[in-house]
Predict the 3D structure of the following.
Amino acid sequence: MPITSIIPATPSIDVGRQRPAISLLPTLRGPRGLPGASGEEVNVGTRAYAETQSIGAGVSFLRTAGYATVGDGGAALYIRAMSDPGAGGFQSADGAWWALSDVFVTPQMFGAAGDGVTDDSAALQEAVDASLAVRLPPGNYLVTTPIDLRIGSSIVGAGRDATRITVGAAIAALRRHHTVEAQGNILIADLAIEGGHAGTTGISFVLVDSTEIRSCDFIGLSVNVSIDRGRRHLIEGCTAEGNTSYKAGQLKLFSSVDDNYIFYPCVRSYYVNCGLFDAGVVTGCADPAIYTRRTIELRLDDCQVDHAERDSGADFILIENDSQGGKINGGSSHGAKTGVKFRTGSGVQVGPGYFEILNHDVDAFTVAAIDIDCSQPGVGVLISIHGGILTGARSTGLPYVRARQVIDLLVAGVHIEDYSGNNYGTAFDLDNVIGAVIANNELRNLETGFIFGATTGALRIHGNSVINAAAKTSGSFAAAGTRIANNYGLNPLALTTPSLPASGATYTNNTGVPLRIGIGAGTVSLIAINGRGTLALAGQFLLDVGETIAITYTVAPTWSFMPM
C-alpha cells in the first residue's frame, strides 16, 4: 500500500547542493490533512525502509528517523525530485527519486556508525559529495580511504573532545589536491584526527587557495597538516600530540617544486605537546615539528613546543630554501635541538631572507637557540631578532645565536642567560656575517660573549651588557667597518699595542673598537688625526674606528693603546 500518512510540511533551505531548489515550497503545499496533496510530508522509520516502499504521488517530503535503524543518528528530510539527484539521494520502490533536503548533512545519514570500529569512509565521502556543509556529531569515525573534499567544503565537528576521525591506513584522511592552483574555500574545525597506522596524514592540500583549519587536535599522526603551495592558509588554535603508538606529527607548509611558493600561510596558537607528563603516550615529536619551505609572508604567531627533548629530540621551527618576508611572533620552545633554524636546504639553494623573530623564547636547547645556517650555497639576507629570552644551553660550546653566511643581521633587546650555574654557551657565534647590528642585549653567565669568524666584518656592537662571561670574545673582530663600543662588561677589550709607525706614517684604527692613544716623551713636531694637524704634541688622543693618526718625530715617542 502506498505511503500516504500526512503531517504538516516543514520549510527547508537550499544551500547549493545538487538537488532542486525549494525556496517556493510554502506556496506549493496543499491543505493540512488532505491525504496525497502536493507539498505534504510523511514520516517513515528509516531511509532503508523508504527505499522498499511505494510512496503516494502527492507526497513531496519524507522525514526519516534513522538510516538503517530508528535512532541511529541518520534522521533526515528528503524532497521528491524529478530525476536522479546524485549524491545523497535515493530511489523508492515505485521509481520516485528523493533528494536530501537538510541544511546540514551528517555521515550518519549515509550509514556511518561513528564507533571507531566500522569503516565509515564511504559514508563520509557520500556526505561530502552530497553537501558543502557537513557536520560530524560526537563519535569516532574510522577511515581507511582518503575523503576527497569539494571546493567550498565545510567539515565541522562537535568539538575536539567529542568528534574524532581515526586514520586506519597510510593515507591522508581529508584532502583536496589540484594540478593547477585553484580556489578551495575549505573549512575544517572542532574535531580531532588520530593516527592508528604508520605513515598517516590528517589533512592534505595541494595547490588549493583559501583554507582554514581551526580548533583541531592531531594525535599520533606522521603529518598533521600538509599544505603544498596555494595561498591564504590559516591554521588556528590547533594542538599536536602523541598517542600510545606514535609521537606528535609534523606541520608542513611548503612548495614541493623550485619554481613556485606557498603564499601567505598563517599559523596561530599552535601547540606541540611532547607528552612528558602523559602516561602511556609515546613522547617526542616529528623533527622538525614545523617545517616550511619556499614560503612568502609566513606568519607563525604564538606557536609552542614543550619538552621536545623527549625521544631523540627535534628542531621546533625549520625555515628552508628561499622563504621570504616572514614573521615569528611570540611563542616558545622548550627542549628542542634548535628553537628556530634557517637553512638553504635541498633543491635550488637560495637562502631565506627578510625575516623577523619577535619576542620568541627558547629554553633548554641542545644544538642552538636560533641557528641561521646558510653555509651551503645561498646567503641569508636581512634577518632580525627583537626581544625574547634565550636560556638554558644544555652543554658547553652551544651558541644561543649562530649565524653563517648572512648579510645584514640585526639582534636587539634579547636576554641571553645560562641559569644552570655552569656558564654554558656562547651568546653570538658569527662567521661570514657582513653588516650586523647587535645592540642593547643582556648577556649573563656564559662561556663566551662573542665568537668572530675570520670573514666576519662591518659589525656594529653597542649598548650590550656582558655579565659574568668566562671569555668576552674569541676570534678576530678587527675587520673593516666593525665598531664595538659602549658595551658594559665587554669594554675595554684586551688589545696588544702595535709597534710605533715610522715618522709621518699613517696608522688606521681597524681594531673594531674606539681607542684612547697615549703619546709621550720623544721629540715630536706634529700629530695629525685624519690628516689634520693638532696643536698638541703629547697627551691622550681619541681615535674612532676607521680613523687615522700620523706622528712626525725625530726622537721616537712612547705610545700606548686603551680600548674605550
